[in-house]
Amino acid sequence: MKIQSEFSKYADQYGNYNIIQEKVVTKLLDDLSEQPRRILDLGCGKGALFSAIDWKVDHFVGVDFAPGMLELHPKEGENVSVLECVYGDFNDAALFEQLSYNGFDRIFSASALQWAENLENVFKNIASLQKPVSLAIFSGSTFKTLFETAGVTPLLRSSDEVEALAKCYFNAKVEIVQYKLEFDSVREMFRYIKKSGVSGNRNLLGYKEMKKLMESYPLDYLEFEVVFIKN
Ligand SMILES: C[S@@+](CC[C@H](N)C(=O)[O-])C[C@H]1O[C@@H](n2cnc3c(N)ncnc32)[C@H](O)[C@@H]1O
Questions:
Q1: Residue 83: Cβ within 10 Å count
Q2: Which residue, 13, 108, 143, 218, has most beta carbons within 10 Å?
């Protein structure tokens, strides 16, 4: 297991609430040693991975359970004619049965599997497709100090838990990357949390608790932790 960390500043990219997710997509692609031509992307959102691919692919299947996200996929560009958006839930074993009829070269999932209801089952279903994987999953130290300050238990599975599960189902390299995103003001930071979707859009605190947290949060940055699983 390799641990690395990276520091970025939000002010430079004002209005971009997907900075960390974009970094995750970039790393997933940078880590490849080949250019897969038949791709599955689980929890594809509005197509960040699809849009970042700069080579010709034969088939790109993006799965998401939010139709509004699928609709936002690019409508033009080199690979659009081979893009297939599938409305589906990665918690559902039947989805993988349906997907097993495709021959994929690689299965990706970027910043989505942290919301798996049962990660072990989802890993088992992904592994049943018997294809190489590139998975990136947000883990427990995301917003660590924020949760500690608020006295709230972390929302996500720990990196140890994700890694242990990954080792059971994939013969893969596991890398844990810590990202820090710096802000000019606490208000900006909290707006980011709300809009970025990293918190799963859950309102963990009431107005008063949130106000108190904003006053007492000791850092000028947010912490993110992502487990990368690749074979
Ligand atoms: C933070 S976004 C990441 C989107 C994209 N992969 C990216 O890197 O920008 C997480 C995505 O996972 C999707 N998602 C969450 N749970 C899901 C599920 N059970 N089945 C399918 N998609 C899911 C959400 O709808 C959302 O589009």
A1: 19
A2: 108
Ligand 1, atom 25: nearest CA belongs to which residue?
66
Using a 6 Å cutoff on CB, does residue 112 contact ligand 1? yes
0.90 cut: is pTM over it?
yes
Count CB neighbours of 113 within 10 A.
Answer: 22
- Among 64, 72, 96, which is best to mutate for testing ligand 1, by the most ligand atoms less than 8 A from CB? 64
